[in-house]
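Lecture notes, structural biology module. Today: joint structure prediction for complexes of two components.
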Amino acid sequence: DARSMWLYRWYYSNLCQRTLSFTIFLILFLAFFETPSSLTRTADVRYRSLPWEPPCGLTEAVELLCLLVFAADVSVKGYLVGWSQFQKNLWLLAYLTVLAVSLVDWTVSLSLLCQEPLRMRRLLRPFFLLQNSSMMKKTLKCIRWSLPDMASVGLLLAIHLCLFTMLGMLLFTVGEKDAELNRERLTYFRSLPEALTSLLVLLTTANNPDVMIPAYSKNRAYAIFFIVFTLIGSLFLMNLLTAIIYNQFRGYLMKSLQTSLFRRRLGTRAAYEVLSSMQAGAAPETAGVRPHTLLQVLQKVQMSGSHKQAIMEKVRSYNDVLLSADEFQKLFDELDKSVIKEHPPRPQYQSPFLQTAQFLFSHRYFDYLGNGIALSNLVSICVFLVLDADVLPRNRDDFVLGILDCIFILYYVLELLLKVFALGPRGYLSYPSNVCDGLLTSILLVLEISTLAVYGFPHPHWKPETLGLLSLWDMTRLVNMLIVFRFLRIIPNMKPMAMVVSTILGLIQNLRAFGGILVVVYYVFAIVGISLFRGTIVAPFGNSSLAPANGSVSCGSFEQLEYWANNFDDFAAALVTLWNVMVVNNWQVILDAYARYVGPWSKVYFVLWWLVSSVIWVNLFLALLLENFLHRWDPQNHEQPSAGTPE
Amino acid sequence: DARSMWLYRWYYSNLCQRTLSFTIFLILFLAFFETPSSLTRTADVRYRSLPWEPPCGLTEAVELLCLLVFAADVSVKGYLVGWSQFQKNLWLLAYLTVLAVSLVDWTVSLSLLCQEPLRMRRLLRPFFLLQNSSMMKKTLKCIRWSLPDMASVGLLLAIHLCLFTMLGMLLFTVGEKDAELNRERLTYFRSLPEALTSLLVLLTTANNPDVMIPAYSKNRAYAIFFIVFTLIGSLFLMNLLTAIIYNQFRGYLMKSLQTSLFRRRLGTRAAYEVLSSMQAGAAPETAGVRPHTLLQVLQKVQMSGSHKQAIMEKVRSYNDVLLSADEFQKLFDELDKSVIKEHPPRPQYQSPFLQTAQFLFSHRYFDYLGNGIALSNLVSICVFLVLDADVLPRNRDDFVLGILDCIFILYYVLELLLKVFALGPRGYLSYPSNVCDGLLTSILLVLEISTLAVYGFPHPHWKPETLGLLSLWDMTRLVNMLIVFRFLRIIPNMKPMAMVVSTILGLIQNLRAFGGILVVVYYVFAIVGISLFRGTIVAPFGNSSLAPANGSVSCGSFEQLEYWANNFDDFAAALVTLWNVMVVNNWQVILDAYARYVGPWSKVYFVLWWLVSSVIWVNLFLALLLENFLHRWDPQNHEQPSAGTPE
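The predicted structure, tokenised, for the full assembly:
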């Protein structure tokens, strides 16, 4: 028992869990380097150089390492859970199966010298991410629960689509002798599958005015057909999907919060029972825990220092009275209270002049002054951007901008030094915003000094040519860009902004499960996409990038829009392509291009991806955001302060 | 007092309120006929004929009539409210002002013989709609409350936009000697306003893959810039706006329901007090209402027949006991119960054969058979659509389709007759679905008979030519289209579907206020748009429609996409243009075209419209839908049955 206890502790220690997370990250990250490797400068088929191919065995070795870590993980988990429980736990069984399949696939691929046509194990990799997070499993369960309702809306959507397709086909063949209407028919309603595609795309509003233009220029009344279709489909039914998903996720966050609170209560109560039973011999009717015992136990417990100290101080205040169960519980409420971070004391200066200076530079008006300077710096960059917009790079005069940059950076350095003087080095670093500022300032200083060293001090008509990789101009731009980031420190100083930003930051904490599911979905679809569509998009005219905007291709097609980079030839390109389809705009172009290059069945893949990503995931995200937002802004919940805001 | 009571009753009578609603509708509808009248076949500037212009004084006369009705309305309202209250009521004061301004404007326009350059009163018209609905006023108040929060998110959005614009401009001028990057700079980031527009449009995802293509084909890493921008802007901040609006509208519906319930309670209580005080003289300690008195009062009250009967029956069951306040209240709970509509008794037939037939044809399996037949009819139309897709109209053989249509219509007529036989004529009409079916069937029958009369019975190679307006082919199509609508009756037969449909129907009832606000917003923006942009889009090459897809215009421009119909030359066209901008897809084309034709300031109008319609209104709609849906599907609310569903 002691051994398994030790194993349990060791397994759930930070180091072990971090190793596991890193392994998962590593095995997922491998996809960027594996055979259709993403290590080219561009994904555009016209300009792409031959990618670097990893030698056979390199990525495989890393993969084997990861798989062995997973094997160790599953065996430890199995040992801890026990064999009889193991058989009942579907997730663990699936884990074992996936691991076995991956290993078999790995040996097969190595025995074929990495020339195998299909890699099953790549598809299975996201499973490792999925099974390691309990939140993700919960979210998946939630999604599964809402599937029946979503299916009924989906069915309604399908009926809506079919009815309007038929109506449209009937409508646009009535006046067939009409040139305009015939154009509508020939472009969007030629055959049943094409009409269906047109209206499906219209459901996402991606071809909105275009699809109605030929009929609408013929007669105003045809607009009604398209407007009614969009109204019902896009406004009613699509938003109904959002409502259904939100309905399922309402209270999801709340419930999981309550569950974790309940678990902790249960744990403290159990600890209380154990501790009180240990001294039950003395006086059975006066059950309770002696503070002294508790202090001894607390010494051994791992928890963050400040919380520990707070609890121990409270325990000491009870002297030697026996603690009742309620009092015991209350002790651990300290854990909920977020500790107000205390800043180290300011350095004490003797001279009254220095004290005045310290007061001055640690005052918040000094911060405001710094913000004002950053803002004016930003404005000056803006002004130069506008002034230089129409001037060719070689005619530009960088003199004033160079001088200004110098001055601003000097100010930032001064500010840094004064603040360090006023707050002391440790006090300065105890504010996260200062750390950020300091880092940016030192980078700026280094950049500026190196610029001055190479090019000398700015003078009128200061036009140094390119040296090495970057010209001076680029250097200045880089410096300016960093200043833009510095500007962000203004945001927390504005009240309503700070509220919204804290909501977003709070959301990000809760977002890991959703992000994980997104990663899983993207990964699976990207791998499937690569195996389906790799190499199907070929460069026009034998890779010649010299052909100008060619007039032979029709407007709005994949070729005219030069979407060549939207392919599935490697993992990174596939991710970007999937992103573009997820954002939905102009996805009909990609849909159409792949239908031409590969075959009409490719539409199934893209429609499926649209359903999974844009319909389900984006709605999921919206539901989570709503949930999080309402939970945070609800006045009833203000007694439970969110982490980070001092009470 | 009696006279004002009479006036009050008369004013809130159905007739008077309907007259008022009709007047509002009429004055709003006038916009279609007024000087830039919408009575042309198409809005396309290339093909548009000269519209019919109403003679000066025609629409003005109608308008004066409407304004006089409003004047009567405001005076009655003022009389009923009383002058001291009138002065305090801002809505009524505004009503009076608007009316006065409209009348002055009307006289000015008539004295100028309808040649006035600007018609103020058109802009003010939607106010009449607004002030007539208390729900709309409430909704407006709700929107006003959520404005501060929205402003803070809007500010964040603006900062986000500005930062990324500057970053983008700095980023895409770093490697300026680079051809591809330079293209990105020249196309989307040429100057500060253009970069801002590009990224604003990207915020709506309307130019999603296009804007990143030049940079992305240069280097993969540039995609990160655009993806991060879209993620933060479109996913986080835009959805945060939704959350804020939803937060404000949560409980909005609930509250208004509770308020109306509370008001009714108050009313009944007051009635009870009045009635009991009338007989207080008899026995002051046994306060109560004599059922007899109540019956007398009820006789005079206007309410729907079935409710009245139910209440009166209950009152009679009390005999002559005095009613206490609680009992009195309970009586009126009858109003909440939706009456189960009783279908008239079926006709009684003597012969057992007829009875069996009646049982058979009134059974629900007979309904299912009818649905099946309708479905098979739909499938047959589908099959013919697919078969005929590639055949030119003149080669088509309509023989089989004609025969099939005949058979199906015969079946529908038979079904109609049998149902009438089984349920009796009044019983048949008591089901709304039957009424719909019967109407469709009779129209189909008339169409079919007229077809047969004109063209004779179908035979092979049956190819009658066009007679009058419609050819036989078109006639058949028309018939088929009506059958498609008949198919809709299947939906209520499916359980989850019925649920979703009932949600949507329930939503529509609650939607009037939102629809009204949409009408107001559309109206105002359309009128402003007409006065700003009327006649600015002119047909290319002197109205020649003969010019083919001209190669001189660049792809993706207003001219190449032939968006000529998206103009502001009359009211109907303006509405469709605004709709297209509201749907957001490809709105950058319209934005760009108007910036070229009119001037860069036109962007302000479109961005404003985007903010009002797409950002605020669509989110409002989503909030309402969520609210409605959650309210209906919440198991706690099932004791409050929604109107229409029998308990």
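Point to remember: Residues 188 and 195 of chain A are 6 Å apart (CA to CA).
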